[in-house]
Structure formats: C-alpha cells, structure tokens
Amino acid sequence: MTTGYQLKRADFIFKNQNDWEEILSKNINRTPQELINELISSELKGRGGAGFPTGLKWKLSAEAVDDTKYVICNADEGEPGTFKDREILSKVPFKVLTAMAVCGHVIGAKEGYIYLRGEYFFLCMELNKAIAEFKFYCQEINFDFTIRIFMGSGAYICGEETALFESMEGKRGEPRNKPPFPSSYGYMGKPTVINNVETLAHTYTIFKYGAKRFYDLGVQYSRGSKLFSVSGDTPKPGIYELELGMSLADFVDEFGDGDTKAVQVGGASGFLVPRKRFNETVIGFQGKLTGISLPTGGSMMLFNSSRSMFNVLDNYLEFFREESCGQCTPCRVGCQQLLNGIKAVKRGEKNARYLDKLLRLAETMQITAKCGLGQSIANSFSSIVENFREEMIY
Amino acid sequence: MEKKIKITINGVTVEIELGTSILEAAHQTGVIIPTLCYHKDLCVAGNCRVCIVEIAGQKRLAAACATPCEEGMEILTNSFKVRNSRKHIIELLLSEHNADCTRCYKNGNCELQKLASEYKIVSQDFIRLAESKNYTIDMFSASIIKDDSKCIRCQRCVRTCAELQGVNALTVAYKGDRMKIATFFEKSMVDVVCTNCGQCINHCPTGALVEKNYIEEVWDAIADKTKHVIVQTAPAVRVGLGEELGYEPGTRVTGKMVAALKRLGFDAVMDTDFSADLTIMEEGTELLSRLKRTLVDHDPTVKLPMATSCSPGWIKYIEHMYPDYLDHLSTCKSPQQMFGALAKTYYAKAHHLNPETIVSVSIMPCTAKKFEAYRPEMHDSGYRDVDYVLTTRELAIMIKQAGIDFMKLDDMHYDSLMGESTGAAVIFGATGGVMEAALRTVYELVTGRNVPFENLNITPARGMEGVKEASIKIENALEEWAFLDGVELKCAIAHGLVNAKKVMDSIRSGESDYHFIEFMACPGGCLGGGGQPIPTSPEIRRKRTEAIYAEDSGMPLRKSHQNPEIIEIYKNFLINPLGEKSHHLLHTKYTTRKRF
User: Fold this and answer.
1) Of A326, A344, A368, the CB nearest to B176
2) What pTM does this model have?
3) Rounded to an integer, what distance in angstroms lies between the CA atom of residue B545 and that of residue B525?
4) Which end of chain B has fewer CB atoms surrounding its CB within 10 Å, N or C?
5) B595 pLDDT tier (thresholds 50, 70, 90)
6) Where in chain A is the domain with CATH 3.40.50.11540?
7) SS3 per residue for B490-552
8) B315 near B377, Cβ under 8 Å?
9) What does the alpha-carbon distance between residue B134 and residue B136 come to, in Å, rounded to a whole number?
C-alpha cells in the first residue's frame, strides 16, 4: 500500500523554549507590517481545524480601528480524539504566551485571554505560574500586555469562536451570526484575534526561524508541520509532529495495527476514510491538489475490523445530540433525527431507504446550520453511511 | 444620505440602502421570505433558519434576517436548494412540536401552523420526537400557561423578557436535545420574577405560551340566572378588539363592542374609563397631598417622586426588583380594581342587589390583570372585587363563539352609573396617558385654568420614546395651593419595563428630581398589552395610539373631574377624594417579593 513517500517527522513545537525572552524582545521591536508579511508568506493556516490563514486574520484585526482589542488563545480543546493543546500548554507554555504578546503588538491589543477547557483545570496552576513569570519579564522590558486565564465549563460548543466570546462575556455559549466576524466584532464587541493553541505555537516557530523554514515543510496549500493526536486501534498512540501533505496510506503504514479498516480524520466532526480510499487521501487543507485532501484539527482515530461502524456513528451522534447548543433548528432537531433514524433502521422499524432521507437531511444541516458544529455533522455521518451502509442496516 | 448598493433578488436588480438585511431588502421589493424567530420588536437571533436564502457563489445558505446585503449580491429566495432545505427545517420543527392543533388554544393564529400549511408538509417521514420527551405544562400562574411541548425554541419569549422588559424570567436552559426555555431552577411561573405582563405570549409564534383563559367560567356565569353579571372594558380594548374581528389595526370599535357585550348576555356593560377618571381624582389628590406634605410640612416620611400604580405588571416588577421603593407607589388601586370594589358596593346598593350574586367580569388588554384580580388584598368589597378577567383576545373568541357578526352591529352606549367617561380616561390606554390625564386635572385644580397646551394635548407626554419627560410650571395658583406657586412640576413617563428600570436606577442613584412618574409595563402602554391581539409590532402599536388620541379628541368631556358620574359618586357615596370610604375601597398596600 505504500506510495514510496515517507512520513516526514518534524520537531519544532516541543523543542526548547528557553529563548522566549529573546524572541519576544526581538519581535516586539519589529513593525506590525513586517510581522504580518512574515506570517502571510509562511502560509500558516489555523491549526484548530478550519484552516483560516493566520496572517490574514492578524492583518484584518490590525486594520480594524478601535482603542481596545483582544488576543484570545482558544484552548477549549474539545474535539473527540484531540489532545495536543494540553501537551503544548503543559510543555511549552511560554511559546504560546510569547506568540500572544507578539500578536498583541501586531494588532494593538493590551489584553490576552487563554480560554481553557473546563476539563483542563489541572493545567491552571502551572499555567498561572508561567503567566506570572511572563508578566514579570514584560514589565521589565516595559511591554504592556496582560494575559489571563478564563476557565470554560465543559461545553463543546464553546470551542466555536463566537460561542467562546459569549461564554467569556458571561452569557450562554451560543454561536453568533456571522458576519460580523471576530476581526471586527469579537470579545466584548471589540476587534479580536482568536487562535488555536497550536497555531500560536507555530507562529513562535516562524518568528524564530523565519517564514522560509516553515514554508519549506509540507506541500502546496498545506505548508508547515502539524501535531497529530493518534488514537484508536494503534500500537503507538500519542502526539506526533508531522509535515502536512502525507497520504493516509503512509500514515496507516506507520501507525496502523495491520488491520486498519478506516480512519477518522479530524475527530467526530471530520471525515471517516475507508480502507479503499487510503491511497488517494492526503492530509492537508483543501486546495487544487489532485485527490481528496482532508483538513484536520489533528485528531486521527484508527479503527480495525473488530469495530462496528454503526457503533462508531451512534457514538458520534450521541455526542452531537448532547453538545449541540440547541439554538438552531437544523442542528438541534437534525442530530436527534439522525441518531433516532439510524437506530430505527438498525432495528428494522424504518426501511433501508430511510438512510437516503437521512443523507439528504445531513446535507441540509450542512448548508443551513448556524455554526460549524451543525455544518460539520454531515461530514462524519455521510462518510460513514455511504461507505459502510451495510453495517448500518444489518 | 445613506449609501445605496445594488443587489439582485430572484433575478430582479434593486437598489437598497447599505446595511439592510436580506430579509428587509426582499420585503421592500415585494418578495416574501417566511420567518419564525424574527420579530420586529426584537434583536435578530437567526436561529430557526426558516428564512434561509441562496447567495450566488456561496456553498452554504444564509439566514436572510441576519445577513446584511453587499454590493452585487445575487440572492435566490426560492431555488431548488432553498425550497428543499426550508421544507426539511419545517419538517424538523414539526417533528419536535406537539402538533395537536385541534386541541391547541392558538389553533388558527399559529405561525408554525401557517408555515406547515403553506408548504403542505403532508408526509411527515421523520420520527416523532415530541411524544417521547417528558414535557411539562406549567399552569400554576394566574395569567400564563407555558407548554414546553409546543415550544420551537425560537427564543422570542426570552428576548422579549430580556430586551423589552428587562425581567429575564424566561431564559434558555440545558443544551442539545434537552435545550428548553425555562425559569430560574425550572420553578413554576408563579414562583419567579415573572410580572405576568404577557409580552411573551404576544411574541410567541406557537401555543407554547398562552394566557390562562376564563371563557367557560364567564359563559357559565352568564347562563346562571341567579347571577347578575356585569362587565367593564378597559380603554385600550376598544382600539384593539377590531383586529381580531376583521378590522384594520387602529380601528375604534367602542360602540360595536358594547353592543356585542350586551348580545353576549351581560346584565350591565360599563366602562373602566369611569374608574380611570376616578383614579385621576384619587391619584391627583394624592400627588397634591404628597407635594404639600413635602414642601410645606417637610414630612420626611412622604416619598417623592410618586409613581403611578395602574399597571399591575409594573407593580409586580417593583415589588420584585425595587422592594425598598414601594413607598413611592401611589396607594391607588388600578382602575380595574377600583371598579371591582365599587361594583359590589356602590353599584350593588344603587341597584338593590345582593353583592354575593354579582359576578364582576373585566375585559382587559392585559394578562397581569388576571393575577391582580387574584391578589388576596383585592377583597375590599367583602367579596373578590373582580371575579374574572378576560383579555381582548378572549372577548373576541366569545364574540365568534356566539355567532355575532361584529361588523354588522349598531353602536350602543355604556350603561349608566359607572359607564360615563372622559377623554382623559380613554388615553389611559396609551403611554403617557395617565400623566396627561392627571396633569389636566391637577393643573386645573391648582390654578383654576386649563393646562397651558393647545387643545389640552400635552404633547411631550405622547410618543413612543422609551423614557419621556414633561414639566409644567405652576403660576398664579389658587389661594389654597399658593405653596405651589412657581413650582415646576417635573414628570417622567416610562413604558416597557426595561425603560422603567432606567428611571428607577436614576432615582436610586439620586440623579433625577422628578415629582411624578408614570410607569407602564408594556411597550406603548396598555394598547401594546400582553392581552391584545397578536401579532404586535411598532407599526400596529402606532396605529392603536392614533386611534386612542382620536377617541380622546372626539369626546365632549376631556377632563376627569368633569365626568358627571364622578361628580355624582363623590356627592352620594365617596364624599371626598382620599376620604374614609376611598381609603377603604380604592387604595391598597404592596408586598415585598423575592427576586428569583
């Protein structure tokens, strides 16, 4: 099954962070325009899963006119099968803090927040120590930037950027209508840059080694390296930093247990790729590449032939049914219908053709739901039902 | 001049103002996009997704209510994709909705039902979800029934309670499939800060929130030959009722309404306007007495500003939210309760009736009045002062049930004794009306002259601004009121409890120096009340307001103290405003309530 392409390991993220003071003082003396250009030329895309160009995001917020702006680090790592941000925050917190401060310098923000997932409360104490040390240094070099931690309370939806703002404002975590986007109307209605933990860590790499070094990794449209949280039926689960653009076949060669039936790329809201499509699937952001290119927040779940895909889907849908915020119709009711629907088909209460109706419903959810959560449920639903239809019925 | 942009809707290019939403732009160009969670009174939520439209070049559909138009946008409101998706969404809503339409109180005036019928959702393939959930129906409140099984989670009630009223009795609880609209700790509506204003009912698209109706009880009373059933009608009912019976908003149907009530079999049809005039006499005198005790006697126990007490929603609000300011409330009962107390005393005596046999019904634009009638202190006649309170909507239902062709009725007059009214009483139905009526009487009482406004129209008190201010300088006062000479009487008017909050906070912080404040719980005053016909919108309320002021200016008598029946009741029964009988029958006390 190998294509001859070897998995390319990279080691940037967890490499020492002892030079953060130097990186910080060096970069806050560069002009914002210079930093933005550096980021844009690196072609770094958001590592949370959506893949929005980070340079552009910073640029838009920098251009917004307002006295108060915010930098927010999204550490609400809730996607099933992802566990990389936790590791970054506990191993190299100063990289994230430094990147936030540089971002503050670029866009003109004096305050930054780390929105920490409720379940990561155990990280809080160590992280606060790091923040205190960071603050001390900032004061020393006369750089005005304050970072605080905001603890989430365990809702998956609060990882959605606008729901996260609502949550921080003390309201119910429900996604807002877009437009307006965070770059002009974010936390407290102010221009806000909100980046994933890993994205910020990558900007540190870029500021340290320059855009070229980062750009040289990966393939067209998918530059740089990325952390992958490997789990499921694999002999070596864990976190690995790999260059983007690898084929799934190579990935399975490396991490599979020899009996891999399918891989869930991107967590519950991502796609399930069956064995027959391993060769043509590339892990990276959508672009004009040939073959199927799958973006991911880093979650790679491997399933071997002992797994029932019905149970897998059932599990995902239960998750979504509970974690939908419940405000918009397609997501709230749609999730319940998909879940009850596949169960009814399995029990024989509905005939197999009902699955087609559910597939059409999933498509509707994809184009009508208010936020990314509802829109992405169709990814796993359709890819599982279409590829393992017989497992849904019998 | 706003910047204009060009967009294309369904192939037609139109020019619209920058910043207009797609929904608005479509409506301006004659394209109707269905909506559920959208309401003109409220902020945009964009959560029902019924109003989705296709924008050329975008893979996903956009919610028309929440998406602003951009230059060159090509919008399709009825494409293949839109139609299929919209149908799906309506089907989804129906699968979660207890669609037992024939047994639903809102049958016939339900936005979801209308949508289902327009899109002909006949085959419902999706699995029924409503029946498998253990929904509760909260029927403990005297005013509001909340039935979760009919809720479509559009959050219109939540936004109403927060944005229009600032009460936040209703909010969203839980997430995912368990997400629902709930009160604090899911207590009953009767146990929370709910003011019973009924604005949530007025804004609910389905039957999830409806008023507790007393239609059958009233029919039973009418049928009972041993009972003498009398009815009073509030000022705002006459400008709203027509909407339920085929008239355009803003049509005055006073005479027809009286005729219909007589045909329904009420033994006497009288007017809350009468007791509104009475309220002015009592409240006006109370204001003057408070001013005297403050300015002349320097009595620290007397509280100014004095706040009106006509709106039961407002009363319950202040009892919950500002219990330390209850002394600022006028002790006057609301016109409904004044009428009720007099019906079983003054009226019973005049007609030689045993008060026990009198059933006192009131027709109100209000659901909070239902709660008010049930207050334990409202028993001053020795019986429950008002037995049943019906909303404008319930009256319309009774008229339809009785087979009365409303439009063909000839106008009739109210029965005498408590049926005469003045223009001052009619404007009680609009925001600023109580203030205007009070000033007309108070100013004349103090100076012997008319208020210094053209045609008695105190225009600063009128209009839809949330908080209004008016002031009158008193000059050349009569001898008895000489201490008021040169005093500038400062008044404020707030409607919608969110505005009431602003005024109360300014009093608390000591910023304001008002003497007299009118508070109305509902936007626009009673004419926008929670018991008025559905739908409501700023436009509809404006039309009703115009009708109210037209009714006022058409009246021969326009000052409360000119009402001959008022003069008579003081001569024969009450003797003096704030007298002993008044004190017993027309004034009340307030209760401190908890803030859940």
Assistant:
1) A326
2) 0.93
3) 9
4) N
5) confident
6) 20-215
7) EEEEEECHHHHHHHHHHHHCCCCCCCEEEEECCCCCHHHCCCCCCCCCHHHHHHHHHHHHHHH
8) no
9) 7
**Tell me: the pLDDT tens digits for A288-328?**
444 577 777 889 999 999 999 999 999 999 999 999 999 99
Q: Is A361 on the interface with B (CB under 8 A)?
A: yes
CATH of domain A309-393: 1.20.1440.230
- Cα(A293)–Cα(A299) distance, integer angstroms: 15
Task: Enumerate the CATH 1.20.1440.230 domain ranges in chain A, comma separated.
Answer: 309-393
Q: Which of B50, B60, B93 sits opposite A367 (nearest CB)?
A: B60
ipTM of the complex: 0.93
pLDDT value of position A289: 43
Give the tens place of pLDDT for each residue, B249-286. Answer: 999 999 999 999 999 999 999 999 999 999 999 999 99
CB A271 within 8 A of CB A294: yes
Interface A-B, measured as beta-carbon pairs within 8 A, has a size of: 116
Give the gap in angstroms from C-alpha A266 to the nearest C-alpha of chain B: 21
Task: State yes or no: pLDDT of B135 exceeds 60.
Answer: yes
Q: Is A41 on the interface with B (CB under 8 A)?
A: no
**Min Cα separation B92/chain A (Å):** 6
Write out pLDDT tens, residues A161-175. 999 999 999 999 999
pLDDT in the model for residue A12: 92
Residue A4 has a pLDDT of: 47
Cα–Cα distance for residue pair B233/B363, rounded to 1 Å: 5
Mean pLDDT of chain B: 95
Q: Domains of chain B (ranges plus CATH)?
A: 4-78 (3.10.20.740), 92-211 (3.30.70.20), 226-274+336-408 (3.40.50.1780), 279-333+422-529+552-585 (3.40.950.10)
Nearest to A324 among B125, B171, B175 (CB): B175
Burial class (CB in 10 A: 0-12, 13-18, 19+), B296: exposed
Residue whose structure tokens are 């949508």:
B115
pLDDT at B425: 96
Give B304-333 pLDDT, tens digit per residue.
899 999 999 999 999 999 999 999 999 999
Contact B469, B494 (CB under 8 A): no
Contact check, Cβ <8 Å, B177/A326? yes
Contact A368 B44 (CB under 8 A): no
Which residues does chain A have within 8 Å of residue B63's beta carbon, measured at their own beta carbons?
177, 370
Rounded to a whole number of angstroms, the distance from the CA of B59 to the nearest CA of chain A is 7
> Which positions of chain A have pLDDT values less than 50?
1-4, 288-290
Amino acid identity of residue A228, one-letter, is F
In this predicted structure, what is the pLDDT of residue A287?
57
Fold of A20-215: Rossmann fold (3.40.50)
User: Residues of A with CB below 8 A from B18's CB?
Assistant: none
CATH architecture type of domain A218-304: Roll (3.10)
Its sign, for the CA torsion B541, B547, B550, B554, is negative
Comma-separated ranges of CATH 3.10.20.600 domains in chain A: 218-304
The confidence score (pLDDT) of residue B123 equals 77
Residue of B nearest to A330 (CA): B89
